Each structure stands twice: as structure tokens, then as C-alpha cells.
Amino acid sequence: MDKVIVITGPTAAGKTALGARLAKKLGGEVVSADSMQVYKYMDVGTAKPTKEDMLGVPHYMLDIIPPWEDYSAARYVSDASRCVDDIISRGKRPVLVGGTGLYIDSLLTGRVFSQRGDSRLRSELQSEYDNIGGSEMLIKLAEVDPDSAARLHANDKKRIVRAFEVYNSTGRTISQHNRESKAAPVRYQAVKIALTFSDRAKLYDRIDNRVGIMLDAGLESEVRSLLEMGVSPGCTAMQAIGYKEMTGAVLGQCSIDEAAEKIKMESRRYAKRQLTWLRRDEDINWITIDEPLANDIERLSCAQAIAGEVPK
Questions:
Q1: Tens of pLDDT along 295-307?
Q2: Could you tell me which residues come within 8 angstroms of residue 79 by beta carbon, excluding any fewer than 6 positions away?
Q3: CATH 3.40.50.300 domain extents, the chain
Q4: At the top level of CATH, which class does the domain 119-183 belong to?
Q5: How far apart are CA 73 and CA 195, in angstroms?
Q6: Which of 55, 51, 57 is CA-nearest to residue 92?
Q7: 3-112+185-306 CATH fold
Q8: How far is residue 259's CA from residue 210's CA, in Å, rounded to a whole number?
Q9: Using CA atoms, how far apart are residues 13 and 206, in angstroms rounded to an integer?
């Protein structure tokens, strides 16, 4: 089975730099695993790598859709797997770099997502939920998918509607689909490397510093430009950390300084969630280095050793 190298970790941990350097050292190519870097025109707030950051290494899954489109893990698996397969077919090493855990796990396992119903069906189910209430919807769901009905709360409108949507569209329950998906063999073997800091305060300092860099690099102008293009403040892309808060400032709902503090706070919370997700995975190899001067050389050396390569 083909092997993929994964470089992951919390936001601002140094994944992009290490991924490019490792890929260059190993003759590999980078596939981004960031749910927001897929969007065009969103460079500053997503910390998208520049040409200089890429070190001449090909990078994929960047700038592939406009910001007014929704993107999903299912689309990511479809798009990114083509990139990975192409890299492997040319005898190169795929290096998957990013912090979106769902995207990474779904790609490696080859998870097949249940089919979406059409928008009309979804709207009808949502209206039915609003009319009869969550409790009655759960009673109806128990008739066709008792497993889902047993684990869902009556207030969980989104998942109740989704369970009905899958059943009505495919004739199979979402519980069946999930069991089959988990039982399927993994698509890619992976060497997983995650970056972290022994002192959480150092990670938070890096996050705060990155927010400052984003502001200096023109995050406010980038958000204004997106709004002027007609991108709705309510669309998925504009709900990303950095964009949501800065949109509020641009629309006069708060000051730039207040938006900056909100971005720092939400980024720290996101980093904690990322670490919680990653710690569930017993196959991850952690690299913990705190000294800035040693980071580049020492992390690259550690990553090469974990990936089974002899440092040159």
C-alpha cells in the first residue's frame, strides 16, 4: 500500500515550513489539508503559503474554489485523493500538510461519504421538523433508523434532518453507512507527525504573533475586498476565524483592535480543539521543540528520522 507522510498540529505550530522543507529533502510534493486554504482570494487570513514558503516544491489543494462556494470533507477526499494518486504515480512522496483533522482522517481512510439529498428534500425535512418538533421527528426516525434515533437529541435538528435525508436518498440508514465506512480498509498508509509545544504559553505567543502579522499584511483590506466582491458575510468561508471577526470590524460592529483580540482568543480555542482531536490518534508521532532557533533544523531532522529517511 502507498505511504503518505502527514505533517499536522495546531494552528501556528510551524506545519507549513516543515512540510515544504521535508518534501524538498525527500523529493516529495505537498498536498494541503487545510479547510480554508482551498478558497481563492483568501490568503492573509488563512496563512496560505507564498511562493517563497513553498521552496520550489509543488503544492496542491490551494486556491481551488471561489469563496462563495461551500466545500466539504467529501469533496476534499475526492479532490485530494486524485492529487495524492498522481504524485505516487510519478514516483514522488506525498506530504500531507495541514491542521484540519477531519480532512486528513477521511482522506487516509478513504472514507466514502453518504450521498446528499437534493436541496428540495432537505428543505422539506427542515420544514417538517419545524412544524412537528424534534421529539416527533425522532419517533418517526426510530421507525427506519433506530440506532440514529437512540443517539440523537430532539434538539439536534441538523443531524436528525441529515439522517432522514440519507435514508430517503439512498434507502440505507446513515448508521449502516457509518458502520460500513469504518469497516473498510484504509486507502493510504501514513507516517503521521504532529508538532506541539511543551509549554502551551509558547504556542499562544506564536498565535498572537501570527495575528499581528496578518493585520500588518492587510487582513482588513482582504476582508473588505471579499465583501466588495459580493461574498456574503454569512457564507461558510467568511465564518472562518479571522474573517468573521474582521468582517464585524469592517461593518462597524466593533473596532479593529477588538476584532484582533477576538481572533487571538478564537485561534487559541481552535488550537486546543485541534490538540484534543490529535491526541485521540495513537499512531501520531509527536515532535515537541520549544526553542525558536532550534526549530527548523531539529524538527526537520526529527521528521526525517520518523519518516524513515537518512538525513543528508
A1: 567 778 888 888 8
A2: 61, 64
A3: 3-112+185-306
A4: mainly alpha
A5: 23
A6: 57
A7: Rossmann fold (3.40.50)
A8: 14
A9: 8
pLDDT at residue 82 tops 90: yes
Residues facing 4 on adjacent strands: 190
The answer to whether the CB of 100 falls within 8 A of the CB of 72 is no
Residue 186 DSSP symbol: P
Residue at 104: amino acid letter = I
Cβ partners under 8 Å of residue 264, min gap 6: 207, 208, 211
Ranges of CATH 1.10.20.140 domains, the chain: 119-183
pLDDT tens by residue, 195-216: 999 889 999 999 999 999 999 9
> Nearest Cα to 157, choosing from 179, 181, 178, 136?
136
- The DSSP element (H or E) to which 93 belongs, if any, is strand 93-97
Alpha helices in the chain (DSSP H): 15-26, 51-54, 73-89, 101-109, 119-132, 134-144, 146-151, 157-170, 174-183, 200-217, 219-228, 243-250, 256-278, 292-306
> Which residues are CB-neighbours of 122 under 8 A, at least 6 positions away?
161, 165
